[in-house]
Amino acid sequence: MSSTTLQHLANGVSLGSLYALVAIGYTMVYGILRMINFAHGDIFMMAAYFAFFGIATFRVPWPFAFIGVILATALLGMLVERSAYRPLRDAPKNSILISAIGVSFLLENLANYLFSGKPKAFPEITFFANTVVIGGVSIQVITFFIPAVTMIILAILLYIINRTKLGMAMRAVSKDYETAMVMGIDINKVIAATFAIGSGLAAMGAIMWGIKYPQVQPMMGVMPGLKCFIAAVIGGIGNIKGAVIGGFILGLGEILLVAKLSSLTGYRDAFAFILLILILIFRPTGILGEKTTEKV
Fold it and tell me: What structural domains and CATH numbers belong to the chain?
C-alpha cells in the first residue's frame, strides 16, 4: 500500500467517524420520536462556538472546556426539545418538521447576530496537532483519536440501550409510545435524555471537527448536518450501528472520490446526495434499517 493511499484511508476513516458521531444523534431522535431533528447540525455549530469561546476567550484548559461544552450542548438540546418539540408532540408530523426547520434558522441567525458571520480560527491544541509517522506518512494525532472515540462511544451507547433501565425505556417508547405511557414510563424524561445524549454527541463531533478543520462560522453546521443525516439514512435511520456504518461509507467515499478522481473534486458534496438517491431507490430502509408502519 502506497503512502498516499494510506494517507487517504486515514483521512477517510477520520471524516467518516465524525459523520458517524453526529449521525447517531439523528438516528436516536428518529428511533424514538419518528421525527428528523433538522436543527441537529446547528446544535453542532453552537457547540463549536462554545468550545471556541471556552478555550480562546475564557482560557479554560481544553480538557475542562470540552467537558463543559458537552454538558452545555446537552442542555441546549434539552431546551430545544422542551420549547420547540414537546408542545407539538401530538400535532401532525408536518408541524414538528416546520418547527425543526424554524429552530435551525433561529440558531443560525442567533449565532450570526451574537458572533458575527466572520469565520473564527479554532484554537490549536498542541496534543492533537502532533504528528505520528507511519509508513513514511505523517498523520496528526487527531486523525487516530476521532475513530477511537467513535468506537468507544458506540460501545457505551449499545450498553446503555441494551443493558440499562433508561435503554429499556427508550426501546419501549420507540416501539409503542402509548403503551409505554400506560406502563408508567416517564415519556418526557426519556425523550429529554435522548435529546441530551444526541446533542452531547454532536458536541463531541463539533469539538473534533474544529480541531481537524479549524474554522468556526454560523453556517458551518449546514452541510455536515445534511451529510450526517444522509449517513443515518444510508445505514438505516433509527439504527445506531447503521448510522456508524453509513458515516464510514460516506466519509471514505468522499475522500477516495477526491483522491482517485481529482477532476471531480468540485462534486464532492454532490456525491453524498447521489448516494442518498441511490439508497432511497434500491434500499429505502438503509443497510440495517427495518420496515416500519407509520401510524396515522
Answer: 3-282 (1.10.3470)
